[in-house]
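Why run this: before we spend reagent on co-expression, it is cheaper to look at a predicted model of the complex and decide which construct boundaries make sense. The entries below are exactly what would go into the expression plan.
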Amino acid sequence: MKAFIENPNLLIKEFNEMAAIAQKKAFITIGIELQKKEIETLKNYRGELCDLKKQFIERNLENEANLIYCIDNSLLAVQYELQMLVNIKEDKMSEAWGNLVSAQVTYGTVVRNYPFKFETDNGYVERLEMYEKLLFPKMLFASVGGIIKKSNCSICKEPYSKCEHIKGRLYKGELCVREITEMELEEGSLVDAPANKHCRMLNISYDGKIVDLLTLREEAQTANIGIANSGVGN
Ligand SMILES: [Zn+2]
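The model came back. Tokens follow.
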């Protein structure tokens, strides 16, 4: 990985090769064991990227560190995509939805932040949208409204309104997030275009029964009408 410190273009080349190999496995017909192996390959490579990012930051190379963020998260999005396909084959539909949404959110931060001439207009956003339309039924989302009482900047940990950082931007290879630590809940409502697609209705009334929205399988009698907010880890 040392050569990349001198020439980040080599890194982009290697990334393109890694992404191309991983995307060859991202079809529903590909063997599940090959998809699982590719997920591990991506995880290991992303670990190496993390080390390289530290070296860039030590040398104060902010653009290069931001490039690593974009490469890492592009590969993480494909990793989520592969995991979604594995979930579907294993009949884990709720997890499949969670991984699709994570892929969309993760790739979204890349599209908004690419620091170099970095190919983001590649149809990947549309690809993830197609999965949503073709593989999943129409989802019902919940939106939570409220007043933010306390929030911190994830970069400097100062109160969010007191610092210069802007949420959704990259700083030395880290995404600035507004971390809400205290909030007064006002309302929960059902919406079509939610801010958070992890936050969804879990079940619906169908044919006189309470059923899982994704599988239409009947829920146990004790189940409540639930809303999930199940982000998945990476
Ligand atoms: Zn800050």
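DSSP finds six helices and eight strands in the chain. Residues 153, 155-156, 158, 163, 165 surround zinc ion (CB under 6 Å). Bring this page to Monday's planning discussion.
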